[in-house]
Amino acid sequence: MSVALGVSVSVVVCTYSRARWDNLRAAIESLRRQTLAPLEIVVVVDHEPSLAEHLRLAEPDVVVVENDGPRGLSSARNRGIAASHGDVVAFLDDDAVADGDWLKRISRGYANPHVGAVGGSVDPEWEAGRPRWFPPEFDWVVGCSYPGLPTAPAPTRNLIGANMSFRRDVLERTGEFREGVGRVGATPLGCEETELCIRAARGNGNGSGAIVLYDPAARVRHRVPPARARRDYFFRRCYAEGISKAHVAALVGTRAGLRSERSYTSRILPAAVARGVRDAARGDPAGLGRALAIVGGLAATAGGFAVGAARRRPRAVAAAPHVALVAVALGLWVVALGRTDVRAMTDLGLLSVLPPAYFAAIAVLTGSFVVALRKPHLPQPVLALHAAAYIMVIHATPTLLYGTLRYAWAWKHVGIVDYIERHGSVDPSISFLDAYHNWPAFFAAAALLTKAAGLHLALGFAAWAPPFFNLLFLGALVVLLRALTSNYRRVWLAVWIFFSASWVGQDYFSPQAFGYFLFLVVVAICVGWFRPPFGSHGRRRGLVARFVRLGDDDAPPPAASTGAQRAGLVALVVATCVAVVASHQLTPFMLIGGLGALVLFRRCTLRSLPLLVAVLTVAWTAFLAVGFLRGNLYWIVQSIGNPAGNANSTLINLAHASSGQRLVAYVDRGLTVGVWGLAVLGFARRFWRGHVDLIPALLAAAPFLMLWGNAYGGEMLFRVYFFSLPFVAFLAAGLLFPASDAAASVSWPKAALAGALGLVLFGGLLFGYYGKERENYFSAGEVRATEYLYRVAPPGAILVGAAVEYPLPFEHYERYQYLTLASGDARAVRRAVRDPVGTIERLSSGQHPRPTYVLITRSQRAVADETGILPRGSLRAIQRKLAHSAAFRVIFENRDAVLFVHRPGGSA
Amino acid sequence: MSVRGPVTAWAAALGSVAASAFVLAGAGATVRAVVVFFFLLACPGLALVPLLRLESVWTELTFALAVSFVLDALVAGVMVEARLWSVTGGVLALAVVTLLGSGLQAAQRRSRPDAEEAHP
């Protein structure tokens, strides 16, 4: 008996099918013939009662137990461990036959007290002969030893299931076979022994790890039936092994789980492939078959591993196709960028030149987004990825296509940054672009950034401002909207609507984009952290009181915060408000309006915040921006209290605009009215369900107060739309997702509707945001002409352009005086067109005649033709007249720009 | 989840030291631009916002960028309005704020080591 060598060994054989009856009896017989007899032979029958009965009659000296746990090999083996009594439990497969000295060899391994598991080699016994294509390196497929295993007794990572044993105390210490890993019936999963061996070797972290010993001389022979010698079994088993390996890697960690496999695949398999190919070359055609089987088997295993790893992460599996679709959309976008000829733009701007691939990219993104929105428990980072890709496709397109800074005002802003870089101060009473000198914080920060980064001008990074600012808007928008609803679908649809309908273009390198981001952050903090909880508004009567009392009932409660947190957040809000007041004239008023509405309707506990912003704004204007106030007081006073006039001055004079621009203007208006209409409907639908979205309604309405106050250079209506858009989009999203919480899933028609809505809004955006791009694009030739002008024009020179839309003034701007031909009333413009030489000479004449330069560019022609500020075609006529005048000389010319210098006295 | 943790504080501190070094040395081209952009656009906020212990990475990152911009604008704005313009001075002032915030984060972690588990 095995006790002679110091340990008693029980042998457990698991079986599950009567079809293996003969094999089972051969296995038992081989155990009876051991030179070292086992303490007992335990046969576990896996859910096959008749087989157990049969066995008890046929083999009376064998302990027969039935697996009463879950079906499967792991559970059956655990049942065998429980039913046995030996110090060591050895396992033999029911289709294997042990050599006579098997147990003796096994027992010998346990002479070392640190050895916790011993196993041996398993040789295949092919019932129908070994297929010639079957590579020995893959004998593990049929549960056998393979080249690469030790050839003398050696510690190993794991043993082979058909031939292994464990000390009982190791099993007690580290636990039994893990169920759900091993084979179920004939389904060829596996690796449960690998997982157990890794656990046994690790111990439980206190130095209790045991040696797992492989002794190739402890030999068993494993029958391989013809069915397992077929290619389909080979590949299925490889695939299943991959799945099991993924399970093991997940359970014990990838490093431990795959350590052996790495050396096996990097050394043994390549050598075997080479050998197979060599054999084929030497006239053994099966060599090629073996090489191919190795490559195919490895691929099947890797595939199984990938599938197994994915199955363990259902969210990752749900996300994967969407990540792939985003990649496809970005690929289409890149293709589209390569096929776009910006020089061919008509008066519909980029819309006229974007190729189908661009629209395909948008369609793929939108489709993937709404399908993702449907899915339950999809990780929100996937939705964020879609939004970020959407932003890039919309807002990085001009940046990547043009290669120059887009939009005339961005160039002017670069000029202010350049001024601060050189002077280290501002000049609030400067005559041109004075507002920027009076609200300089953004420009000062940009100057600090430019200088500290060692750059000469802000031109390079300013071009990336639109995608950059829109990504910031995305960040703040999500924080803000999450405070308003627990329905994450409504949040993300609102985000999509926002970016699909944000056509105003206040996202370029500008203090207003900077201020807008900070505005969103301030509102997000007020709504998220400083909101009285629902139900704290008493029981007052009256319609307004009822709105106040019942409003925002299903918004998530304000975020819990400690006193220190609240103090920190207040400091953040106040500092942000100061930065807003110091950066931009209009944004503080939007803050006062929005925060004031929240406080008035008891939706913000920071009651003095709007007052504080108002005081800061007044103080800033009175002390630091007084120069601007003096210069512009007339216009400010005139526009107060004239909302209709302020709204109308927003809209360009369509009578003179080109047909494309008229279409653009109509689509803009339609988009604006449409989104507001959707918001009203969304509010109504939610109201119908018993919810009053008071906070978003207040914040959507508050910007309209500004129409009463100021025309803002004719842009007020756009700004009102822009500042109300986050809340308008949120109300509109309530139309499709009115529920308080995200439902388990969304119906296909609703998802399709969301997609259609996104695409329709985007269609509008194409006109609104891209429709003026012929004016906003500056070719390299135009930029070269401007650079040349700055090189040759002496300080004090007069620079004349047709309109303000050209890449000026970005360097040393204060040294020059700027004039435009299209200024003054209609008569003055007509005169300028009729007699440009005389007009320019009159404009530039004074006590001290100064050098005068006239720059006419492609973009100016585009502005003149599209907006009608000059009669169509007149700029070319002006150019011709200057060219034929003796008073002007061309000093620089390329296909997009011509630069004239005036020679005083030349006309005489 | 939170961006709090030694990585954020270290990144902010390293960013401030590296940016200050580049600006003081007046050296470097592309690397300097990258380091300075990272520092001025993100580091002051990454050093300060985690002190608030907000429970969402998204929120903390958004606020960190906002705080960085606000501090940049305030420091640069004061320098311009007070005619005290100094690129080195501005960068060093922001670096001091960043290092202070990173140090406070470390102190906060030491005094409340359990706080990491409190916000899974």
Structure write-up:
The complex is a heterodimer of chains A (908) and B (120). Chain A is an alpha/beta fold and 908 residues long. Chain A is built from 37 helices and 14 strands. In chain A, strands 1, 2, 3, 4, 5, 6, 7, 8 and 9 form a nine-stranded mixed β-sheet that branches. Chain A has a five-stranded mixed β-sheet with strand order 11-10-12-14-13, with helices on both faces. In chain A, strand 13 and strand 14 (897-902) form a beta hairpin. The termini of chain A are far apart. With 120 residues, chain B is mainly alpha-helical. The relative contact order of chain B is 0.19. The longest helix of chain B has 25 residues, at 57-81. In chain B, helix 1 (6-25) packs antiparallel against helix 4 (87-111), helix 2 crosses helix 3 (57-81) and helix 2 crosses helix 4. The chains are: A alpha/beta (908), B mainly alpha (120). Chains A and B meet through helix 16, helix 18, helix 20 and helix 22 of A and helix 1, helix 2, helix 3 and helix 4 of B.
List the helices and strands and how they pair.
The complex is a heterodimer of chains A (908) and B (120).
Chain A: E1 9-15, H1 21-32, E2 40-45, H2 49-58, E3 63-66, H3 73-83, E4 88-93, E5 96-98, H4 102-109, E6 115-126, E7 154-155, E8 163-167, H5 168-174, H6 192-202, E9 211-224, H7 231-252, H8 254-257, H9 259-281, H10 286-311, H11 314-338, H12 356-374, H13 380-402, H14 408-423, H15 434-438, H16 441-452, H17 459-462, H18 465-482, H19 488-501, H20 511-529, H21 543-550, H22 563-583, H23 587-600, H24 609-624, H25 626-639, H26 643-648, H27 659-688, H28 694-701, H29 705-709, H30 716-736, H31 748-770, H32 773-776, H33 780-792, E10 798-801, E11 817-820, H34 826-834, H35 836-844, E12 852-857, H36 858-867, H37 874-884, E13 888-894, E14 897-902
Parallel strand pairs in A: 1-2, 1-4, 2-3, 6-9, 10-11, 10-12
Antiparallel strand pairs in A: 4-8, 5-9, 6-8, 7-9, 12-14, 13-14
Chain B: H1 6-25, H2 30-48, H3 57-81, H4 87-111, H5 115-118
Helix pairs in contact in B: 1-2, 1-4, 2-3, 2-4
